[in-house]
Amino acid sequence: MELWFTEKQTPNVGITCKITKTLHTETTPFQELAVIETLQFGRMLVLDGMVQTTIADEFVYHEMIAHVALNTHPNPEKVMVIGGGDGGTIREIVKHPKVKKAVLVEIDERVIEVSKQYLPEIAAALMGNPKVEVRVEDGIKHVKEHKGEYDVIIIDSTEPVGPAVELFSEDFYKNVYESLKEDGIMVAQTESPFFNRDIIKNSFTRIGKNFPITRLYFATVPTYPSGVWTFTLGSKKFDPLAVKKEDIFVDPSNKYYNAEVHFGAFMLPNFIAEIIK
Ligand code: SAM
Questions:
Q1: Phi and psi angles of residue 210, each rounded to the nearest 5 degrees, phi first
Q2: Which of 37, 127, 145, 274 is buried deepest, with most CB atoms within 10 A?
């Protein structure tokens, strides 16, 4: 008998993958957590029925959420990730030579532990890297309690449901602003330009109320709804488009992000540019 997994991405659209087995399922205090083995994308982390990451395409999202901001800041020594319990974003951050400390603030300890067990290629940096500090905490509370502390904050959240709803609010972005140093930068994943135009518009407006430089960029992630994914960057001082190409750090292991992509990702097709007009 063939086994298939479907994520209903909208009331009218889904993604369906043939699977060989379910490696893990559990109900955590925050969400339904599963790891499944798919034929096309390899192991896949699923939360509340929604694809979070897969072995085959995780590099796009993780490189793009991390390196654009890290290369925009001239000295990103202290970086925080909110969410991101699979460890992929932290793995990218610690590649950057100027980073001295990478703090992961994930609300659900089980996501971290299950990722270490079933997705070690993604979670490797959570296992004994001296630059990494893992804190099991609510990111909303953390930013309220840590002012002026970070050079870069990356919001690697789930979709705006459950504990992540507030991670898209104006109040939260204000607290992120205050948690950054005077020249800090934030970036958030802001969903699909085909299916989530309101989320993008609202996040862009809310981030823009706090940050003098606000820019939208995108990348192609096949297992995310519609395959096209956006990120919104808010910066107090440094503009990602003013970076000198020769200063951009590209780790030899990168599979997506490079100096051309750094700028190209901000070149928006009309239908995306329209969302933030
Ligand atoms: N790359 C993914 C995506 O866009 O589908 C996101 C991956 S990561 C697994 C998202 C994490 O955010 C989850 O593990 C979830 O527990 C965490 N999270 C949700 N709300 C949070 C909060 N308020 N504070 C900290 N972490 C939170």
A1: -100, -40
A2: 37
86 is in an annotated binding site: yes
Cα dist. 257→63, 103, 182, 226, 270 in Å? 6, 22, 27, 20, 23
Give me 83's structure tokens: 């969410």
Looking up residue 43, the CATH number of its domain turns out to be: 2.30.140.10
pTM equals 0.98
Establish whether 151 is a catalytic residue. no
* Structural domains of the chain, count: 2
Same domain? For 63 and 46 the reply is no
Query: Which of 106, 113, 145, 192 is the pocket-test mutation for ligand 1 (most atoms within 8 Å of CB)?
Result: 106
Alpha-carbon distance values, 181 to 38, 77, 172 (Å)? 42, 11, 16
Task: Express each pLDDT in 170-196 by its tens digit.
Answer: 999 999 999 999 999 999 999 999 999
Pairing type for strands 101-106 and 78-83 reads parallel
Range of the domain at 222: 57-274
Name residue 231's beta-bridge partners. 189, 217
